[in-house]
Structures are given as C-alpha cells and as structure tokens.
DNA-directed RNA polymerase subunit
Amino acid sequence: MEGLMVSDANLTVYIHPSMANKIRGAILSQLSSLLFKYDEMFEGVLLAYQVDGRSRSARILPGLVPHIGVKLRASLLLFSPKPNMFIEGKVVKLGRESVHATVLGFSSAAIMLEDIRAEFKYKTRDGVGTFTSRYNKHHLIKVGSIIRFIVKSLDEEMLHISGSLVPPNTGCINWLSKHEVDDASQKERGIKRNRANGVEENALEQDPSFFHSSKRSRSHKD
C-alpha cells in the first residue's frame, strides 16, 4: 500500500526537569503522545517509532518553565497519504450513495457515489447491500471487503480520507489480486508464444530453403 514510509529522523525531545532521573521513560512518553496524530513536521501520521540512539548530554532551555532538551535519532513509521496514491481499507458501512471504510484501523475513509465508477451497481439481497460489477458478478464490494482506492484528499485534523473508485484497478482486493495474477500469466504466455514464433521466423530467415523444401515435399506427395 502506498502512503507508508520509514523515516530516519534527528529529533529534540523536551523533558520537564522533574523527569531528569527518568530520561528514557520521559522520551518514550513524549514520542508515544504523538502516535496516531497528524504531525506537520513529519508530514504524516506517526504509527510506530524506534529510538536508535540519543546524546549523552542535555541542554537546559530557559523559560517560565525550564525544560531539558535531549537530542536523539529515531526510526519512524509514517502514514502520509497524498492525492492519487493507492491505499487500502476495510469496508465498515455501505449504502446506495457511498462506501465507508477504515484505513489501518484508525483513519476513516468515504467514497461518494460520484466517485464510484459506473461499472459498479448497487444491489440488495436478503437485506445485504453490495456494489457489484456489471461485467463480473464475482467482483463485489460489501461490508467486510478489503478495497483498494485512490486518495482524493485528507482532512488532517479529523484523519478523514476522501477516496475514489473510478480507476479500473480499484475495487475489492481479493478479486483484483486474483485477476492481476491471471492477466500477468496471460501476458507471460503471450510473450512465450511471441518468442516461439520469433524463433521460427528467424529460422526461416536464416534458412529459406526450409520453406521451399517443405513445399516441394507436399507437392511431391500430391
């Protein structure tokens, strides 16, 4: 899935002097407070972190409430969805006008009817709604489906994504994965056939007498 990235960062963590004898715990507490929130400095949502090392020296920063500045290196796992990126989510609600999903278990996403391509038609059966492909009844989107869609926009404060199912390579992941493999297999078989034909054509070019001798042989039999 696009939008996920690991970043190595040099950070400065500000710690209250009362935590001077518990520096490591204070650092982890500060970083943990940033989890699952959009941070402009990181340009994304912090999902996980690992502290790789920290300076042994700290600097006391003056002010009304003095703090200790500790420099450290950390590896950060960030979720930074941008427009036109392909991401995945689990459908939690579905109706005639929209599909709603959760992304990575914490971010919400909504895809409105105008952003669902005409291939999908809303149907209900036994009280269960689905968006089913007009071309293949096995390609359907329902509650519980894992879908791939593209990002239109992100509300950074609400962590709400506006998405689209217009591109042809969006939809239910299970169906897309299977048919992408099938398409790849067909292309591979086509390449092999072309290569085989190419070998035969090359053989004829190198030895045109092969074709003539075969023709004479058939005439002789006639």
Remarks:
- The two ends are 64 Å apart (CA to CA).
- Confidence is low (pLDDT under 50) at residues 183-192, 199-222.
- Residues 173-206 form the longest helix (34 residues).
- Residues 50 and 133 are 44 Å apart (CA to CA).
